[in-house]
Amino acid sequence: MTQPDLSVRIGKLYLENPVLVASGTFGYGSEYGHFVDISLLGGIVTKTLTPEPWPGNPPPRAAETAAGMLNSIGLQNVGVEAFIREKMPYLRTLDTAIIVNVGGGPLEEFVYVTERLADCEGIDALEINMSCPNVSGGLDFSTDPRRAAQLIGTLRRVTSLPIIAKLTPNITDITEIATHVEEAGADAISAINTIRGMAIDISTRRPKLGAIMGGLSGPAIKPVAIAAVYQVAKRVRIPVIGIGGISSAEDALEFMIAGATAVQIGTANFVEPRTGATVVDGLAAWCTASDVPAIREVIGRMELPS
Ligand code: SIN
Hints:
Layout: E1 8-10, E2 13-15, E3 19-21, E4 43-45, E5 62-65, E6 68-71, H1 80-91, E7 97-102, H2 107-118, E8 125-129, H3 140-143, H4 145-158, E9 163-167, H5 174-184, E10 188-191, E11 195-197, E12 200-201, E13 206-207, E14 214-217, H6 222-235, E15 240-243, H7 249-258, E16 262-265, H8 268-271, H9 275-289
Parallel strand pairs: 3-4, 3-16, 4-7, 7-8, 8-9, 9-10, 10-15, 15-16
Antiparallel strand pairs: 1-2, 5-6, 6-14, 11-14, 12-13
This protein binds succinic acid (SIN).
C-alpha cells in the first residue's frame, strides 16, 4: 500500500501535511526541540511578535477549566529584533514550514514587525494576530470589518509573504470579517483564537487570572471552532486553518470535513508535546483505512442531512 498524500497548500505555501502547532503553545520551536521531532509537523507558528520585547500581563496568567484552560499571557515576547537575531538561526535549521505570528497595538506596530520580517530568510508565511483578547485594543482589528480590511490591506503592501489573518470568535458574525480580510489580500484565515472567559476562586473571591479575564481554549471550544470554520469556509475562496481543541486525528478530520485545509494544535501541546506528530500519524492511518489516497480530498466534503 502506498503512503497517503498528506500534503496541502495554503495559497503559495506548501505543507507536507496539514498539522501545524499554534502560536503561543510552542514557543519559538527550540523549547520543544528536545521532546519532539519537529520535522514531522507540517509547520510551526511562533509566538506573537511585537516591535519591542514585551513582558505580558501580571500573574497568574493561566487557569485550568473543565475541558480547557484560560490564559491571559498578554503577548509576552522577545520582540522582533531579538527574534531575528536569536531565534531565526534555530528555526532555519528545521525541516518544516515556519510561520511567524505578528502582533502589535496600533496599526503602525503591525507594519513595523511585518517590514522587519519581510526579507528575513527562512520565513514561509506570516500569521497576523488581530484577535488577542488579552491586551487593550487586541480585538479591535477583528471586530470591525473596516479596520480589519485596513490592517490586512496595509500589510499586503509591505510583504510578499503569504498573509494568514487570525480571527476572533468574540463577534456576532465572523464571516463578515473573513470576507473583508479576503478582499484586502489575505491568503488564508486562521479560525479561531480564544473565546473570552473568566473564573473566580471562591475562597478568596479573587479572579483566577491577574488580568481578571482571559481567553478560553482546549476541547471546550472545539464545537464553536468547527462551526466558525464551516461558516467561514462557505463564504471565502481562500483556505481556512482550523484551531480549537484539537488533540487527535479524529478532531483534525472533523475540522477538515467542515472546510479547513489545515489545522493547528494548541492547548494539547501543554498536555503532550508530541500531539502534533501523533495527529499526523493518525491522519495517515485513517486515509489508508478509508481508501483515501490524498487528505485534501476530505476538505469541505461534509455530507448534509437529507
Ligand atoms: C496572549 O499572549 O495573551 C495569547 C495570545 C492570543 O490570545 O492571541
